[in-house]
């Protein structure tokens, strides 16, 4: 029976969270809004429209959302050729694929941004599929992106593990019934990830790779037998 290893990209596999913070901060500044960077950082991981609502509130003028998003996208695009994956990110995906896992990226990135992120990770041969925000009606923390990713590879929730770096990732996984592992490399504290539902927390992809044998991935056996089941 197949198993699915689901991965967020921004802040999880590629060191982009603070670049997004700068791009959003400048986009808001250009739009006449003063939003502190720490607040922007906490919102990273939400789809653009939800991030804007989260930071500016429902009383904002929503007709300005597209202009803010476009400003962010334009600013962030200047980093595309310089994006860097975290240490061992590609090796982690290849190790899981080599062990029979169906590796799926779950991201709100699309088009040129997604291409830049995949170039940075440099592990396309390990990927079974990619689920983007265009595929679902509602992004994280709703379970929709994770449920869609599972449908792409035909794997049930109890045969999957999701890895992310934000509280939105952990909440989405919990709502989808998928065990999750949190990474600290996105800048969110361990306690916040754990409270949001992370079953385990690691420093970064290299740390998770070094501890795969004791990670949540070990709780999903290859043969579909219950974890910890004894032999004959």
From TrEMBL:
Top-level taxon of origin: Bacteria
GO molecular function, one term: hydrolase activity
EC id: 3.-.-.-
UniProt entry tagged with the keyword Hydrolase: yes
Coiled-coil spans in chain: none
Alphabetical list of InterPro entries matching this protein: HAD-like_hydrolase_sf, HAD-like_sf, HAD-SF_hydro_IA, HAD_sf, PGP-like_dom2
Enzyme class: hydrolase
Keyword terms of this UniProt record: Hydrolase
Gene3D superfamilies the UniProt entry points to: HAD superfamily/HAD-like, Putative phosphatase, domain 2
Name of the protein described by the UniProt record: HAD family hydrolase
């Amino acid at each position: 029976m197949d198993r699915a290893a689901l991965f967020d990209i921004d802040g999880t596999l590629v060191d982009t969270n603070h670049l997004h913070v700068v791009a959003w901060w400048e986009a808001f500044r250009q739009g006449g809004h003063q939003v502190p960077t720490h607040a922007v950082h906490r919102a990273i991981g939400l789809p653009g429209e939800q991030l804007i609502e989260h930071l500016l509130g429902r009383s904002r003028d929503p007709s300005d959302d597209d202009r803010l998003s476009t400003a962010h996208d334009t600013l962030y695009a200047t980093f595309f050729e310089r994006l860097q994956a975290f240490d061992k990110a590609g090796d982690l995906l290849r190790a899981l694929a080599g062990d029979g896992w169906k590796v799926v990226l779950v991201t709100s990135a699309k088009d040129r941004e997604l291409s830049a992120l995949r170039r940075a990770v440099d592990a396309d041969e390990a990927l079974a599929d990619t689920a983007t925000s265009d595929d679902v009606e509602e992004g994280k923390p709703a379970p929709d992106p994770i449920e869609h990713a599972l449908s792409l590879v035909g794997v049930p929730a109890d045969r999957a593990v999701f890895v992310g770096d934000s509280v939105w990732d952990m909440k989405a996984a919990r709502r989808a019934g998928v065990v999750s592992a949190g990474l600290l490399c996105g800048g969110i504290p361990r306690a916040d990830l754990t409270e949001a539902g992370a079953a385990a927390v690691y420093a970064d992809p290299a740390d998770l790779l070094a501890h795969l044998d004791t990670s949540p991935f070990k709780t999903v056996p290859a043969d579909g037998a219950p974890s910890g089941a004894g032999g004959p």
